[in-house]
Every structure is written in C-alpha cells, then in structure tokens.
Specification:
Helix 2 (63-83) packs across helix 3. Helices cover 30% and strands 15% of the residues. It is globular. It is an alpha+beta fold. It has a five-stranded antiparallel sheet. The longest helix has 21 residues, at 63-83. The protein has three helices and five strands, in the order H-E-E-E-H-E-E-H. The protein has a single domain (4-16, 42-153), classed as HIT-like (HIT family, subunit A), CATH 3.30.428.10. The mean pLDDT is 93.
C-alpha cells in the first residue's frame, strides 16, 4: 500500500523542492537524501535524513540510495561532533508513524553530559515534547546553518 498521498514527510519534501522550507528543514541535500532538523525535539541537533522519494521499507532503497546513505550517516555524524560537540551519534529508523511512513533516519547527538535516563532508548524522551520544551526555530536554524557549512566543506564524493 502506498501512503504517499497522506504522508506528511512527502509534503515536507515537496516544500523543500519548491524552496518554501525554512533553513532547519532544508539543511543539506544530496542526490537522494535531505538533511533536516527534527521539529518536535527538546534536544538541539537531532537531525533526520529523509530519502527524497516515497518508500516505506528499507528493502525498497536502490543500491545508489543505500550507498549514499551510509556515506551520509558518517558525514553527518562527523559534522555533529564538530558543530554540536557530541561524543557520538545514535541512528534510529522506524517509519511507523501513521503520518510519517516514509523512510527516514534519525541521527541523534549523544552528549557527554547526557543524563543516564536519556541514554540509549531513553533518548526518545526528547521527542514529542510540548511546544514550550522544543528547540526554538531560531536555534534549529542556527544549528542548521553550521551543519550546512560543515557538510559543504567536506568532500561529498563516494569513496568507491
């Protein structure tokens, strides 16, 4: 079943292509992937890699999309270490939300001072928070600009 007609991720991807997305939702783009900041997170630098075409399962990735994804996860993680100052990153992929069945990967900063209850799967406590707890759009744009600059300065050629 194809849910692209009701997929909010597809709507957001279309806005990016039309130049109507704010910086935080259009940080960086490769041939197959978009890099964006998560919009309902209390953790600065929670980024998301979104495949540009609507697919709902990893096995639907083309070889080229998969190859670019692996390279991009590493590049984004390096940028996050440099810009956010995290000690490492977590990578999460479900694509189960009713309005977001579109394949996307959360690249989440794990800070050195992260409270123990917010490590590992506890990191999800930073998502789906109230508006008051969320990172401001201004802060997401600041982080986005720094990540964009760092990613743009890296070589983006696939190593093979």
């Amino acid at each position: 079943m194809n849910n692209s007609d009701t997929c909010i991720t597809c709507e957001m991807t279309a806005r990016r292509r039309q130049g109507q997305a704010p910086l935080w939702d259009h940080i960086y783009q490769t041939e197959f992937w978009d890099v964006v900041h998560a919009y309902n997170s209390a953790l600065p630098g929670w980024l998301v890699l979104v495949v540009q075409r609507h697919i709902e399962s990893l096995d639907e990735l083309t070889e080229q999309e998969a190859a670019e994804l692996g390279h991009l996860i590493r590049r984004v993680s390096l940028s996050m270490k440099s810009v956010i100052g995290c000690m490492k990153t977590y990578v999460i992929q479900f694509s189960e939300a009713r309005q977001h069945p579109h394949v996307h990967f959360h690249i989440v900063p794990r800070m050195a001072d992260q409270p123990p209850e917010r490590r590992s799967t506890g990191i999800m406590g930073y998502r789906g928070v109230s508006r008051e707890e969320r990172i401001s759009e201004g802060r997401m744009n600041e982080i986005g600009a720094e990540i964009r600059s760092h990613l743009s300065s890296q070589s983006h050629e696939l190593p093979f």
